[in-house]
Amino acid sequence: MPDAETVGTEGAKKGAAADAMMGGDPSELCARVRRRFVARFGSPPEGLVVCPGRVNLIGDHTDYAGGLAMPMAIDRHVVLAWGRGTTGDTIEIVSDALGAAARIAVSDGMPAAADAGPWVRHVGGICLLLGKSGVCVPSLRVLSDATLPIGAGLSSSAAHTIALATALCRASGYRATPSEMIELSRRVEAEFVGVPCGELDQTAIVHARAGCALLIDFGDHRIEHVPMAMHDAAWIVIDSRQRRMLANEAYGERRAQCEQAARMLGAAALGACTPVRLARSEKMPDAFRRRARHVIGECARVRAFAEAIRAGDLEAAGRLMYESHDSLRDDFAVSCDRLDLIREAGEEAGAPGVRLTGAGFGGCCVALVPEQDGARICEEIARAFESAFGERPRFLRVRPDEGVRSFDPSMRRLP
Ligand code: GLA
What we know:
It is a single chain. The chain is α+β, with helices and mostly antiparallel strands and about 425 residues long. The protein contains twelve helices and 13 strands. The strands form two sheets. Strands 1, 2, 3, 4, 5, 6, 7, 8 and 13 form a nine-stranded mixed β-sheet that branches. Strands 10-11-9-12 form a four-stranded antiparallel β-sheet. The longest helix has 25 residues, at about 285-310. The two termini are about 35 Å apart. The model is unreliable at about 1-20 (pLDDT under 50). The structure holds alpha-D-galactopyranose.
């Protein structure tokens, strides 16, 4: 399969669209962000932060239910350059990826004013929570850009939050632990954006190791790094181009249903329930039974998937991905026409595995394809998709990357 980032689709285009396709080594993006920082602020940055996005290979809507998931950080990044400000009390932030800029006043480590807009709310939320935990939030100038598509369900929001929080901690001399960073980012989503998410995205982004996926147990927060050296296989993210509204009620409703289903089963969380216990509770209302069946079944699939990957068994891993999609569609009701079509077209084209990834309601699918058949499979999916929806999906070949990291101005890695 060619190493192209757009697989059998749009070909190389100039400008932002092409940038979003760039993958792999983030050094080119780092150099550009550094140049742009100097042009904008007139002095070199004091540090850079590189933060990957993530794709969840299997195990969705299990994190907040204390279950299992297996995501990997991907080689699409948010890169952020930072330097201390001169004005004393402002965070000045420019995002080339969003084409937006904002100034936030900070007094006593707290943002005094945050104008409207979810992006600025994020920044204000990070400052506020860091301030509350005793960090003296410094005046900062920040410029960022990304090869990670924004709002596509690849955790761009968590990546931006963690990148900025990392820069603020560096600038103020505070060493946040990985758990603090994960918790901070989750709270920003919950308290400032209104998304009661779990910790899947943040855990993947903070704890990832190059070449590995993470097998995460959200029941006891244990993480195993699973090597992904499957030489004849490739991971393709297929963006349906349907932007999902994660903040909408459906996500919160599913979470509440899972909590209620666990109570009906007499368990602290669905992740701790067995199929036997579910089978015994005959009187459970249908919707709750379905939500529970998804979470309980999905946790078993994650375990089996990790085994299949370890054994290099593409077929078994792929089968579990299809089963996962079907369960998210039928029992958890978070799929949509575009994602279902990608799944069906993938199976018809002979892909070993395709499933929706992340929250659902739009966003992306992830496909496991043999290296030599990848381009053909993608082309067949693109054709079926185009004849149904009048546009082609976007394909990104992704590889397992390491987690968030910091660099000094000459790009020496910091511990
Ligand atoms: C979103 C949330 C995660 C997780 C997934 C579904 O990505 O941010 O916490 O719940 O949806 O698995």
